[in-house]
Sequence to fold (143 residues):
Amino acid sequence: PLASGSITIQAAKTFTPPTYPLLGNGVTSASLTMAVSAVPSTSVTITPSGTGLTFNPTSLTFTSGGGTSATWTVTGTTNGAQTISYAVSGTDQYEYTPLASGSITIQAAKTFTPPTYPVLGNGVTSASLTMAVSAVPSTSVTI
Fold:
């Protein structure tokens, strides 16, 4: 006969990735927070990656006795929607639900081109001058 016993199945621990902002090309984000539902018994490291993206720090490590959140920043240099993949490693990586890929959109930098200013005589008013912008801003801009 087979020996009887019981097995306890624990719910997988989870990571909650940040919500990534719309980011200008070459601009570094504010601090973004990755959270974990429970600290690992030993350690788990998350390493994000994406085309044209730089993360600082390059990975986050959660350890026993450590906190349940950690932060990083991201800088993008490739315009458009970029996929963020996460590699999870460490002794306790299998205790966690795998992370789904994320996404961030990088926008081309907007530039203003000032008008050419004419030389004016004393008391003379110029014709209208035009300032150009490479793309319409999403909010009001005062110059």
